[in-house]
Write a structure and sequence with these properties.
Shape: globular
Radius of gyration: 13 Å
CATH architecture: 2-Layer Sandwich
Order of helices and strands: EHEEHE
Strand order of the largest sheet: 2-3-1-4
Number of strands: 4
Structural class: alpha+beta
Number of helices: 2
Strand content: 35-45%
CATH topology: Alpha-Beta Plaits
């Protein structure tokens, strides 16, 4: 099984999020009009693992780091990837 983790923070905290992601080897993205959170734009840290406990520990470490830097974490989520196929245009 493969897990995908997302940590959502305010776009205003993107610099903190980016430095945390870089240090902890996460990827980042910015999404406008989140289907759950609404029309605003948000900054996301994303990571993957085949080990749920490892993914959870990595998520907790990233959240603790963000909070230590004064960043408000809006959402934390771990999803099980059941099916994911990407096609080039």
């Amino acid at each position: 099984m493969n897990y995908e983790c997302h940590i959502t923070i305010a776009l205003a905290d993107a610099a903190l999020g980016h430095s945390t992601a870089e240090r902890l080897h996460w990827t980042t993205s910015e999404i406008e009009r989140d289907p759950v959170l609404g029309k605003a734009s948000y900054f996301y840290l994303t990571s993957h693992s085949s080990d749920f406990l490892l993914m959870h520990d990595r998520m907790r470490a990233a959240i603790e780091s963000l909070r230590a830097d004064g960043c408000h974490v809006i959402r934390e989520k771990i999803e099980l990837i059941v099916y994911d196929v990407r096609h080039k245009p």
